[in-house]
Specification:
The chain contains 13 helices and 17 strands. The strands form four sheets. The chain has a five-stranded antiparallel beta sheet with strand order 9-10-11-15-14, with no helix packed on it. The chain folds into three domains: 2-25 and 149-453, no CATH class; 33-136, Immunoglobulin-like, CATH 2.60.40; 458-561, Immunoglobulin-like (Sandwich). The chain is 47% helix and 22% strand. Strand 9 (458-464) and strand 10 (467-474) form a beta hairpin. The protein has helices at residues 2-23, 132-136, 150-178, 188-214, 224-231, 234-256, 262-282, 293-318, 324-357, 367-397, 401-406, 417-445, 450-453, and strands at residues 33-37, 42-44, 50-55, 59-70, 82-84, 89-93, 101-111, 116-125, 458-464, 467-474, 479-489, 500-507, 513-516, 520-522, 525-533, 537-546, 552-561.
Length: 562
């Protein structure tokens, strides 16, 4: 009854997490657009010959979309876009002699960690077009069709299965290498199946990356032109390497798996390590700050996760067939291996958390952060069951050191059938929880890192004559925002209504200004809930606090829009 309830609970958790993944929007990460030429909303005296976009890391454009259109939607880009600056600068050639008016740049590129990134901005020649406002709407400018969900879902499924296969193969190999060399023949089918699944899912991921990154449907899965573009990316190189290594591992299991000893287990562990390295190279760890150390830490993390979770799979199988002597020989060693694996995977996981989250607030206000918190909670549950297993081993197979030295205590009592069955159930629940953790991990790989997605609202204060001016801008993101201004007498700390609050927002490096005149909402509180901020960047809000026809005070604050 208890196991049925536990199974039902695991099923419910897994279903909920799958629904969460299917309902969540497609991930867009990881490259950040740093600047454009022309700048967003800039009015130029003469027509440019090209548009350039500079990103924080190298991107690929073979699977992307890059176009420049008039306010009416006619294309004006002319020629083949190209990269410079080590792949971080995109150049879009334009038709010569652009007419006076406004233009829209729409872009979609693929970041180094395989995720597509898209956006749009505008510029004008001579003067802005009057009909551009209708197209811009409320800060949500885009004419790129939303990408179909099917490739993203299929790719997430292959990642989940690939992660699981890696943990089973590498974890089984580590278990045999360190604890059970004689178990290689008995685990041949498991190791071969895991290697085969790893190779097949990697191949599917390679084909699915094309339609996923290009925004196409599953009908383009086996499009050779998309596959060719994928093969030119870091993701393509790493994934194709994993296909070959996993296939070699499957052949190696069939060829040498019948031999006893650590040599074959060591070979399998080495091949599994290379597979883990390809996972790190193709994901978030392979790009950004602290790279290539992030590759190393992420690979080490995968190794220790494999040692723990893959070892649980071996343990679950072994407890059904091991003799009492084999249990006595293997369980104490497994207890030590699992303990140190957990310690080291937590340490390397904390490193990754610091890098991908950045600040505590991002843990509870971003999809990535919430998934990470869920993962930690599930790992915590796994640890509780792991402690049950560790206590079982210590009570039945480990003799206290003092007692052993003085021979004052009898050897531990041999476990009975009910004891072994209880341990097997505990290990089963622990393994089931690891499946849910793998689901969460698959979603994490496909999510924007929290530090990239986190955009806390802006709150600031400054002095304007006898007043302290408090400004709140929520959510401080591109698009529609809420602006709140409070005028407080510094001497008394009480809010006081003034004659008028007005001013403008100006992006640093741009001459364009966004006028703000928030109307009075309540005593000393001025509010505008329809403030449209057209682009990301650093802005200055310049406010005039007019007390009377004769007295007016200026104040400025600087904030960042993500």
């Amino acid at each position: 009854m208890r196991m049925r309830r536990a199974g039902a609970l695991m099923g419910a958790l897994l279903s909920a997490l799958l629904l969460l993944g299917l309902a969540a929007p497609e991930a867009m990460a990881h490259a950040a657009l740093l600047k454009t030429t022309p700048q967003d909303s800039q009015i130029l005296d003469s027509a440019p010959t090209e548009v350039t976009l500079t990103y924080g890391e190298a991107v690929s454009i073979g699977l992307g979309q890059l176009k420049v259109e008039t306010a009416q939607g006619a294309r004006v880009d002319n020629g083949v876009p190209f990269l410079s600056g080590g792949g971080s600068v995109v150049h879009i050639p334009l038709s010569r002699g652009l007419a006076q008016g406004s233009y829209v740049v729409l872009w979609r590129v693929v970041s180094a960690d395989s995720h597509p990134v898209s956006g749009a901005f505008t510029f004008s020649v001579g003067k802005a077009s009057g009909d551009l406002a209708a197209r811009v709407g409320r800060g949500n400018l885009t004419s790129l069709n939303a990408a179909p969900r099917a490739p993203s879902i299929a790719l997430g499924t292959t990642r989940f299965l690939g992660f699981a296969a890696l943990l089973v193969f590498l974890g089984g190999a580590i278990f045999c290498l360190l604890l059970w060399p004689a178990g290689v023949p008995r685990l041949r089918k498991m190791l071969f199946g895991a290697a085969l699944v790893e190779s097949v899912t990697a191949a599917l991921a390679l084909f699915l990356e094309g339609p996923y990154a290009a925004g196409d449907g599953l009908g383009k899965t086996f499009d050779t032109s998309l596959l060719s573009a994928v093969m030119k990316t870091k993701y393509g190189e790493a994934t194709s390497t994993r296909i070959a290594v996993a296939a070699l591992a499957a052949v190696a299991v069939l060829a040498v798996g019948k031999r006893l000893g650590r040599a074959s287990a060591g070979l399998f562990a080495g091949l599994g390590l290379v597979m883990a390295m390809t996972w790190s190279a193709a994901g978030h760890a392979g790009v950004g700050s602290w790279e290539p150390w992030t590759d190393v830490f992420d690979t080490v993390h995968l190794v220790f996760v494999s040692a723990w979770v893959g070892g649980l799979v071996v343990l679950r199988r072994g407890l059904r067939s091991w003799t009492e002597d084999e249990q006595a020989a293997l369980l104490p060693g497994w207890s030590r291996l699992a303990f140190w694996s957990v310690v080291l995977l937590v340490a390397t996981g904390v490193f990754a958390t610091i890098r991908e989250v950045g600040e505590v607030g991002a843990l509870f206000s971003t999809r990535y952060g919430l998934l990470l918190v869920s993962k930690y909670a599930l790992v915590g549950l796994m640890l509780l069951f792991a402690l049950v297993g560790r206590a079982y081993v210590r009570s039945h197979y480990t003799r206290p050191v003092v007692a052993a030295a003085t021979e004052t205590a009898a050897p531990p009592e041999a476990p009975g059938g009910d004891d072994v069955a209880g341990l097997r159930r505990s290990v089963g629940v622990e393994a089931a929880l690891s499946v849910v953790v793998l689901v969460v991990t698959a979603f994490l790989v496909n999510s924007i890192p929290a530090k990239e997605a986190f955009a806390p609202p802006y709150t600031g204060k400054s002095i304007a004559g006898p007043y302290t001016v408090a400004v709140d801008i929520y959510p401080a993101r591109k698009g529609v925002n809420g602006l709140h201004v409070y005028t407080v007498l510094t001497s008394s700390g009480l809010t006081k209504t003034v004659a008028e609050v007005s001013g403008f927002l100006q992006k640093k490096g741009s001459s364009d200004q966004i006028t703000v005149t928030p109307p009075l909402k309540s005593i000393g509180h001025y509010e505008d809930l329809n403030l449209v901020i057209p682009s990301k960047g650093t802005y200055v809000i310049d406010l005039q606090i007019r007390v009377s026809d004769l007295d007016s005070y200026e104040t400025k604050q600087t904030f960042t829009v993500k």
